[in-house]
Amino acid sequence: xxxxxxxxxxKDKQDTLIQSARKEFSRVPLHEASIANIIKDAGIPRGSFxxxxxxxxxLFYYLLSRLSxxxxxxxxxxxxxxxxxxxxxxxxxxxxxxxxxxxxxxxxLFKNAFLNMNYKLEKTLANNIYEEDQKNRYLDMxxxxxxxxxxxxxxxxxHHVIKIITAVTFHNLVQMFVKDLTDEEAxxxxxxxxxxxxxxxxxxxxx
Length: 207
Prior knowledge:
This protein is mainly alpha-helical. It has helices spanning 4-7, 11-27, 35-42, 46-52, 56-81, 86-102, 107-114, 119-125, 135-142, 155-178, 183-199. Residues 11-71 form the HTH tetR-type domain.
């Protein structure tokens, strides 16, 4: 997270630095990104950069966390629209994520992120809803889910269901970029996989 000195900056200066970071992280993946390019574009000294962020990774994950907040808010809104249906909400959210990630302003940034996915990246893009400091937000979201149409025993199983579907969601977003899928191909693959989860995979023998 940024240091408090960053949050003390006027909003226009915060936005300038974030926009410069977005430009650099869209140009190349995190490991190739240059702080020199970011501060040059933002018009700040290197010393000022380190007053705001620990390093380029700190800035990168803060940028993604800001963008993931948008996805989270859309997910909650979709839950309300779909009367708490978890599967319909994930499908709607996936369609919105495709559209959002295809936006020229964000496409290269997300492409670089998803093609270099790791655990920390996935947690950040998932908005860290499983972290302790996000517990209230997670509980608010869970309260909107209609559990009456889910074959689960308790909230712990619901938690695991959400984690499973979230993992499938990120896998499909990665595949969209890796295989250069069209929006229609990506959505079709995602719907097939969610339908398999929804139906269940184990076929019981007739008694």
